[in-house]
User: Which sequence fits this backbone?
């Protein structure tokens, strides 16, 4: 994520935090944010989400059932499944500190995927006790798709440059997986 996107994300996050500090009526502010945002209680149960969050996740979160995350399934950028109990929001709650500079991929129930940068931020009371958390999700699918295509091209160049058939096959398979993931993240115009 570039500096401008990070700055905008921080602006949205500050608006969310300010609304939550005011207490009642915070939903009206969060509902107007153009980015997905949701809140949890201190145990990680999802307590609020805006419509942008539903559009992002491709599903309506289940109040009281969903914990730590609004996505259906969550993966690392290299394709490893991330249990919701180990997602950035769960870690932010467990560590009582914001988690930044991470990228994950959410899989929607329809099988489509979206790469994003989360901004999970614990909410503490005046005495420093954990009350819950807020998370803002910034879609970076296009940038991540481009990066994966570039990586696939590097793998293909290396495969063509080596005389080792085994290494060449491994590199071509890697390139194919990168291209497949890139295509899954690419949005239709």
Assistant:
């Amino acid at each position: 994520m570039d500096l401008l996107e990070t700055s905008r994300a921080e602006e949205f996050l500050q608006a969310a935090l300010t609304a939550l500090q005011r207490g009642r009526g915070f939903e009206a502010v969060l509902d107007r944010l153009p980015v997905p945002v949701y809140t949890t209680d201190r145990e990680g149960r999802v307590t609020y989400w805006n419509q942008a969050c539903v559009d992002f996740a491709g599903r309506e979160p289940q109040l009281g059932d969903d914990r730590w995350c609004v996505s259906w399934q969550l993966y690392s950028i290299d394709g490893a499944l991330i249990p919701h109990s180990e997602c950035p929001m769960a870690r932010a709650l467990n560590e009582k500190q914001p988690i930044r500079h991470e990228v994950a991929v959410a899989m929607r129930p329809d099988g489509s995927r979206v790469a994003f940068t989360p901004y999970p931020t614990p909410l503490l009371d005046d005495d420093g006790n954990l009350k819950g958390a807020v998370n803002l999700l910034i879609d970076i699918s296009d940038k991540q798709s481009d990066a994966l295509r570039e990586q696939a091209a590097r793998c293909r160049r290396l495969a063509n440059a080596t005389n080792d058939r085994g290494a060449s096959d491994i590199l071509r398979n890697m390139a194919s997986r990168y291209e497949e993931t890139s295509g899954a993240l690419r949005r239709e115009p």
Notes: DSSP finds six helices and seven strands in the chain. Helices lie at 3-22, 26-32, 51-57, 88-95, 141-161, 165-185.
